């Protein structure tokens, strides 16, 4: 069993994210509700997903996304260890 925490859904940083409607989080791609597979980070919505109408993740703040993605990538590669020195 994998006890690692999943990353928060990228939806939370997406410029297309909408409100909660009838108990479900909606967005431009999924006006009836974001599929759990995407919201639970089981599908990377930077890639197409059935029913998204061609609308995928786009960051609200591009610079912040680049910084956080770089840190996340480093954490995934090296965990709590420092990266090796070049």
Task: Offer a concise description of the structure.
The chain is of the alpha+beta class and 86 residues long. The protein contains two helices and two strands.
Write structural notes for this entry:
With 86 residues, the protein is an alpha+beta fold. It has one domain (10-77). Helices cover 24% and strands 10% of the residues. It has two helices and two strands. It has helices at 36-39, 62-78; strands spanning 17-21, 24-27. A two-stranded antiparallel ribbon has the order 1-2. Strand 1 (17-21) and strand 2 form a beta hairpin. The longest helix is centred in the C-terminal third of the chain and has 17 residues, at 62-78. It is globular.
Describe this protein with a few key phrases:
single chain; 86 residues; alpha+beta; disordered C terminus
């Amino acid at each position: 069993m994998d006890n690692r925490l999943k990353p928060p859904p990228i939806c939370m940083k997406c410029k297309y994210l909408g409100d909660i409607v009838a108990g479900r989080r909606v967005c431009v791609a999924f006006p009836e509700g974001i599929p759990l597979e995407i919201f639970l980070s089981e599908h990377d919505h930077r890639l197409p997903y059935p029913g998204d109408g061609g609308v995928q993740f786009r960051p609200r703040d591009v610079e912040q996304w680049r910084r956080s993605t770089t840190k996340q990538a480093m954490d995934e590669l090296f965990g709590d260890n420092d990266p090796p020195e070049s």
